[in-house]
Design goal:
The chain is mostly beta strands. It folds into two domains: 108 residues, Immunoglobulins (Immunoglobulin-like, Sandwich); 113 residues, Sandwich (Immunoglobulin-like). Helix content is 9%, strand content 51%. The protein contains two helices and 20 strands. Strands 12, 13, 14, 15, 16, 17, 18, 19 and 20 form a nine-stranded antiparallel β-sheet that branches. The chain has a five-stranded antiparallel β-sheet with strand order 1-2-4-8-7, with no helix packed on it. Strand 7 and strand 8 form a beta hairpin. The longest helix has 18 residues. It is globular, with a radius of gyration of 22 Å. Keywords: Signal.
Length: 251
């Protein structure tokens, strides 16, 4: 009986210790920038950086591992090409706690053997690998107004049968290193299934401006499979800025 009680007591301690571990405590940063003053950790929802929309959580610590209470945080992505370099759309980072910030980066192209991305923050620069997403989730294009845009789908990241939010971010390139969010446009939505007679679906809603470059609408997927989401970008006057744009989903 005494041995049984000791065994049960030990099991209860193990169970309590295990339940104290949260997912946030076991996740690992995808990229870490370090110097003599700072450690900057980047956490993302995927297992690697990918083309398109990458939501990010950033932790900033001193060399002893303590969070540093900075008032703001900025990161600069840069694609180092053979003949030039350029940046990509990046959000303003919101402070969520002491030494913690959240935001996103939109990578419009993948790394390769000769061309690569770097991240620079707090005076620290590091090379990263950006992989090509399995489906088309970002488009870079020239509009009828002779401006270059980047449009990236943010949701749904886990598509399902039925109605769901679809969201995208729209940025305009001012020069190769500066992108600004574009508001007050409209994104027309026409989902199709090319492998099933190119049929569409009912009760979809076009994407409307929500501020800070964000557009949201409703997407209704009637069945599983490959979907091609055709979109048309209209300006504030209802004129076509770009058609023949599309995103892809498969589930």
């Amino acid at each position: 009986m005494k041995k049984l009680l000791i065994f049960l007591w030990g099991m209860s301690l193990w169970a309590c210790s295990s339940s104290d571990i949260t997912p946030n405590e076991v996740k690992r940063p995808i990229t870490t920038l370090e110097n003599d003053l700072y450690t900057v950790e980047f956490f993302i929802t995927d297992s690697s950086w990918k083309t398109g929309y990458n939501p990010i959580e950033v932790h900033i610590k001193d060399k002893s591992g303590q969070f540093i209470d900075l008032p703001e945080f900025k990161v600069v992505p840069s694609m180092q090409m053979q003949m030039m370099s350029h940046s990509s759309p990046v959000s303003t980072f919101e402070k969520t706690d002491k030494g913690k910030f959240k935001g996103f980066i939109i990578f419009q192209m993948a790394s390769n053997e000769m061309e690569f991305w770097t991240l620079e923050a707090l005076g620290i620069t590091k090379r990263i690998e950006v992989k090509e997403s399995s489906k088309r989730v970002v488009q870079s294009f020239m509009g009828t107004d002779d401006s270059r845009y980047v449009l990236a789908m943010a949701e749904p990241n886990k598509p399902k049968v039925g109605s769901q939010t679809i969201s995208a971010y729209l940025y305009q390139m001012k020069d190769s290193h500066h992108f600004v969010p574009v508001n007050n446009c409209m994104i027309l939505l026409d989902p199709r299934m090319p492998g099933m007679g190119n049929h569409s679906s009912p009760n979809n809603q076009d994407l409307l401006s929500k501020g800070q470059g964000l557009y949201q609408g409703l997407l209704n997927l009637t069945m599983t499979g490959y979907w091609k989401l055709n979109v048309v970008l209209l300006n504030e006057q209802g004129e076509t800025v770009k058609d023949q744009i599309f995103f892809e989903l498969e589930f």
